[in-house]
Design goal:
The protein is mostly helical. It has one domain (6-96). It contains six helices and no strands. It has helices spanning 6-12, 18-30, 33-43, 48-61, 63-72, 75-96.
């Protein structure tokens, strides 16, 4: 894909069309960008923008891609990823409430 296209694909994660956002998440996964972003967020959970991006990416991707990401992480990172996803879900429930 190339570094020029990546920002446009990332921007699509916030598209109102869930199908478009899911396709963007799939493209990022297939290019390896998802795993790179997840590992960076797990390494630096205090980097709010990066964490928010990964949370949106995982929310857009659906459970099949989340499982595929988990399969590529070290077992020790699974709990970290679960916490990141849980934090996203908690935030989403507060916003809906």
């Amino acid at each position: 894909m190339g570094s020029v296209a990546t920002p446009a694909v990332i921007h699509t994660l916030w598209h109102g069309d869930a199908f478009a956002a899911n396709n963007a998440a799939e493209v990022l996964f297939l290019t390896g960008d998802t795993l790179e972003m997840v590992r960076a967020a797990l390494t630096r959970p205090d980097a709010g923008d990066r964490t928010a991006l990964v949370q949106r990416l995982l929310a857009s991707s659906g459970p099949h891609l989340v499982r595929a990401v988990q399969d590529q992480l070290d077992p020790a990172q699974h709990a970290q990823l679960d916490r990141l996803i849980a934090a996203r879900d908690a935030f989403a429930s507060v916003r809906r409430g």
